[in-house]
Amino acid sequence: MNATLDPKTISPGAQPDAADVRTGAEVLLRVLREQDVEVVFGYPGGAVLPIYDALFKQNSIRHILVRHEQAAVHAAEGYARSTGKTGVVLVTSGPGATNAVTGLVDALMDSIPLICLSGQVPTHLIGNDAFQEADTTGITRPATKHNYLVKRPGDLSRVLHEAFYVARSGRPGPVLVDLPKDIMVGPAPYHPASGAPHRSYRPVSEPAPDAIAQAVEAMRQAKRPLFYTGGGVINAGPEASEALRRLVRMTGFPCTSTLMGLGAYPTTDRQFLGMLGMHGTYEANLATHGCDLLINIGARFDDRVTGRLDAFSPHSTKIHVDIDPSSINKIVRVDMPIVGDAGRALQMMIAAWEGTASADPVAIAAWWKQIDAWRGIDSLRFRQDPSPDAVIKPQHAIRRLYELARETGRDCFVTTEVGQHQMWAAQHFQYEEPNRWMTSGGLGTMGYGLPAAVGVQVGNPDGLVIDIAGEASTLMNIQELGTICQYRLPVKLFILNNRYMGMVRQWQELLHGSRYSESYSEALPDFVKLAEAFHGTGMRATTLGELDDVIRRMLAHDGPVVADICVDETENCFPMIPSGAAHNEMILGPEQNEQAGRITDEGLMLV
Amino acid sequence: MAPVEEAPITAVISVLVENESGVLARVIGLFSGRGYNIESLTVAPVDEARTRSRINIVTTGTSMVIEQIKALLYRLVPVHRVSDLTALGPHLAREMALVKVVSSGELRTEALRISDAFRARAVDTTVGSFVFELTGAPEKIDSFIDLMRPLGLVEVSRTGIAAIIRGPRTI
């Protein structure tokens, strides 16, 4: 065991006094407290026993015991996204760390600030293929924003403080700190966070004023402008969403949002066109195609948004605000790059816009007239048979869920799994505020929603937390019903059960001649009994007549509920831009299915 | 915007990094993970305290890809500075090679004569072999190796380039 202090690693002038030398595990918890950590999501194991022992001896940091390490990371993501704080995960070495990898990549793709503390075998055993050893920093290098292996006790508090700084500054992301067991058991000096700037990592958050001035000038000249906003606005904090609302209203421009950005601008507002992209609205996509100025705030031209690149917004000048310079000109070449924090950029744009005259009112009015015509298509329409015995349409179930949840007057948080239900939840639920919508955007992780709901509920004990789920996705992390029960979290699991991996089935129908290869959910559990087995309440609606009652009872119940909503098995998610197609080649409904049949071989290769 | 089909260019990128474990793996992983090309890569500490290393990378790609590479490198936490020497103007790029030639008679004499013309040094000599040490621009080393090929070339070891801007400017 290497428990001696290496004097070289303690910076001069910061020599700790004897009282400040504690075990590494105690130093770890002290840093967490200093970083305002209130809750840790984790799962114990051999290599992290000293940390769990230290946790046992204190009361200021709460530990939530999940049932699988992947769920710990998603829970921390849900916590971080709904509270704006940094989520913290604690897992053991080897399988604990490898199970966390999916969650880490998920957080990386969606830019969620997380700290993952992983146990490691003692330093002298590293590289020996010891029991539950894995090369965790090697495995997670491309799965994290940054990672560390603490090899010397003297580095411990510096590395931990630095990890928090890296996780939440610039473009946020997950940071892993690998903690060998001997470092946790042996003595380590404690240093408070130093106010000194980081040696090398200093992201730019203040946009260049002349770039803002140029952008605002372009906005003033624009005849068909469009705001295209993304998760960067949410990540920049509630002030950024506030600024976005002000700017959009001041300018009178239309606004669309990515999946990640929903809630930054109220989705019920007239100036909001709905989500854009593969399952975006007709008006949002045609406005993107037809605009002459695209103002991208904190979005990254993801392939779900752009569709066919050479036909993406072909006539527009493009402004791109992003805190990550590597996101700019990565996929789409833009005319006015602005590196910086979305909130700061928006505030500066407001200030610049206020100073002078507004855009051409005649042109903007004509643009709105065009948009309203597109809106008239009502691309999110669906046909719900109104008879009480009718099969429930999933879209209708979500609309009713929204309406009845709104009637409760409670602050509502929605998480989702991945697939058709996720897109319907994005299209048919409404989001008035940021940080109320938690979904796996970039990685598309099935099984995200239930553990994320755990984290959201822990961070917002009074919130109404609903996981809008599909039956296939939710089974990927269904064990978290155990966590939900243990901590009496009143999470509502709202399953749109169509007995298929719906999005897979939809693609098979449209692109693979309806050969439903392995996409039927055979041998499903009885979700009502499953809820009861986990000490929760189960409900089921099989016909339209039962739907409202089940939703009302679910919302009224003060404990966890699993609502099994049996919906139309053949319903597809529209509108849809088939892969390899352009924004103005949308399929609006099943009557246009044959359009998907014309997808080129090139399109077939795309995901 | 159409993904413009432009010809790939070669760029020499110098990166100043914190000399910590895993930093080279981060740089290499960035290239392999995103499908970028590394033609050559050198790394060594360059400051007195040995806390900073300089990585010189030769890579090829469209100008958009080169810009991406620079932005992604700069995004790495232990990276202090990223400089595209090709874009900054005239620069020097030099590498060292050890070239082993096994031959006798006329071929051996010819190898020795050419090495002299290239100012290569024979750093190891046996009756049947030479190891030549040669420094210079990569193209010079390429042509030396080409000339040695018919003269008994059996093995080549090259360092990859070290690069620096001409004149008083620094990265």
UniProtKB/TrEMBL annotation, chain A:
Domain Thiamine pyrophosphate enzyme N-terminal TPP-binding: start-end pairs: 22-137
> Which GO terms of the molecular function aspect are on file?
acetolactate synthase activity
Question: What enzyme category does the UniProt record give?
Answer: transferase
Catalytic reactions of this protein: 2 pyruvate + H(+) = (2S)-2-acetolactate + CO2
Q: Which InterPro entries match?
A: Acetolactate_synth_lsu, AHAS_TPP, DHS-like_NAD/FAD-binding_dom, THDP-binding, Thiamin_PyroP_enz_cen_dom, Thiamin_PyroP_enz_TPP-bd_dom, TPP_enz, TPP_enzyme_TPP-bd
Q: Which SUPFAM superfamilies match?
A: DHS-like NAD/FAD-binding domain, Thiamin diphosphate-binding fold (THDP-binding)
Q: Which Pfam families match?
A: TPP_enzyme_C (PF02775), TPP_enzyme_M (PF00205), TPP_enzyme_N (PF02776)
Which keywords label this protein? Amino-acid biosynthesis, Branched-chain amino acid biosynthesis, Magnesium, Metal-binding, Thiamine pyrophosphate, Transferase
Cofactor field: Mg(2+); thiamine diphosphate
**Pathway it belongs to?**
Amino-acid biosynthesis; L-isoleucine biosynthesis; L-isoleucine from 2-oxobutanoate: step 1/4; Amino-acid biosynthesis; L-valine biosynthesis; L-valine from pyruvate: step 1/4
Q: So what EC number does this one have?
A: 2.2.1.6
The record describes how the cofactor is bound as: Binds 1 Mg(2+) ion per subunit.
Q: Which Gene3D superfamilies match?
A: 3.40.50.970, TPP-binding domain
Q: Which residues form the Thiamine pyrophosphate enzyme TPP-binding domain?
A: 418-565
Q: Which residues form the Thiamine pyrophosphate enzyme central domain?
A: 212-348
Family affiliation: Belongs to the TPP enzyme family.
| NCBIfam families for the chain | acolac_lg (TIGR00118), PRK09107.1 (NF006581)
Question: What is this protein called in UniProt?
Answer: Acetolactate synthase
Native organism is: Rhizosaccharibacter radicis
TrEMBL record, chain B:
- Note whether Metal-binding occurs among the keywords: no
Q: Which reaction(s) are listed as its catalytic activity?
A: 2 pyruvate + H(+) = (2S)-2-acetolactate + CO2
Q: Please state every residue range assigned to the domain named ACT.
A: 12-90
Question: Looking at the keywords, is Cytoplasm present?
Answer: no
Q: What does this protein do?
A: Catalyzes the conversion of 2 pyruvate molecules into acetolactate in the first common step of the biosynthetic pathway of the branched-amino acids such as leucine, isoleucine, and valine.
The similarity comment for this entry is: Belongs to the acetolactate synthase small subunit family.
Protein's name according to its UniProt entry: Acetolactate synthase small subunit
Which species does the entry assign this protein to?
Rhizosaccharibacter radicis
